């Protein structure tokens, strides 16, 4: 049966002191992983959290209703919006 594991081509190198390496090794041992596996898994979890914090918007129920209503039935454009659109149209020409 063929193996379906992804080929690992990227490499990341870090320098650290002996105390830090020891802590990472102990933590990896508790998770029954190598230091590389532990560091990668932990770094990815944190990276995904940071990306979510910066790229995902969460709204309260009340705010979601306001947002949805504005999408479904937007208010008519005001003078400033009409002015901005005219400026945009002129810039495209």
Automatic annotation (TrEMBL):
<comment type="similarity">
    <text>Belongs to the TacA antitoxin family.</text>
</comment>
<dbReference type="InterPro" id="IPR010985">
    <property type="entry name" value="Ribbon_hlx_hlx"/>
</dbReference>
<dbReference type="Pfam" id="PF08681">
    <property type="entry name" value="TacA1"/>
</dbReference>
<protein>
    <submittedName>
        <fullName>DUF1778 domain-containing protein</fullName>
    </submittedName>
</protein>
<dbReference type="InterPro" id="IPR014795">
    <property type="entry name" value="TacA_1-like"/>
</dbReference>
<keyword id="KW-1277">Toxin-antitoxin system</keyword>
């Amino acid at each position: 049966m063929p193996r379906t594991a992804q080929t690992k081509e990227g490499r990341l190198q870090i320098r650290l002191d002996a105390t830090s390496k020891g802590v990472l090794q102990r933590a990896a041992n508790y998770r029954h992983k190598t230091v590389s596996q532990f560091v990668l898994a932990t770094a990815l979890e944190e990276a995904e959290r940071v990306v979510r914090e910066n790229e995902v918007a969460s709204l309260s129920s009340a705010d979601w209703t306001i947002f949805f209503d504005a999408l479904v039935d937007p208010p008519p454009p005001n003078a400033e919006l009409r002015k901005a659109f005219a400026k945009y149209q002129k810039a495209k020409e």
